[in-house]
Design goal:
Blueprint lengths: L8 E4 L21 E2 L5 E10 L9 E9 L7 E5 L3 E2 L6 E8 L4 E9 L12 E5 L4 E2 L2
Antiparallel strand pairs: 1-9, 2-8, 3-7, 3-9, 3-10, 4-5, 4-6, 4-8
Length: 137
């Protein structure tokens, strides 16, 4: 499998306290957009590992796999992990297969802090590519 970045990670476990929509190949807030352009890989599997639960029952965590022709352009949804809430699938591990047609892929992370108190936090979230990528012929 080709190397997409130093660790093949979309998100590196950095604590999430706000929405994250990476538009750079440089990691910020623990997330990055990965460049698939030179690899020829289109069919991929992403793994979402959530190592801790949410603090409040009404908070949500939604991770969407998106693609774009340019790193900083308009991304389009390809696939979506299940919506996670406190005590429902967290902590947990999820695998999602998707097909990328564009050069750049990212994991968009959306959070909802239902009481709007700004106290949303979830730690130990990792999103990465598996070694089970395949080439589309």
């Amino acid at each position: 499998m080709p190397v997409y970045d130093a660790n093949g990670l979309f998100h590196d476990g950095t604590t999430i306290t706000a929405d994250i929509s990476p538009t750079s190949e440089t990691r910020a807030s623990g997330s990055v957009a990965l460049n698939l352009k030179k690899t020829g890989v289109k069919g991929l599997s992403a793994v979402l590992i959530v190592g801790a639960d949410l603090a409040e029952a009404s908070d949500t965590l939604q991770v969407t796999m998106e693609e774009c022709a340019t790193v900083d352009g308009t991304y389009v949804e390809m696939a979506r992990f299940p919506l996670l809430t406190k005590g429902t699938g967290m902590p947990g591990t999820y695998i999602l297969r998707f097909q990328a047609e564009e050069a750049f892929v990212r994991a968009k992370i959306d959070i909802t802090d239902d009481d709007t108190g700004g106290d949303f936090t979830v730690a130990s979230v990792y999103i990465f590519l598996t070694p089970h990528a395949y080439r589309v012929l």
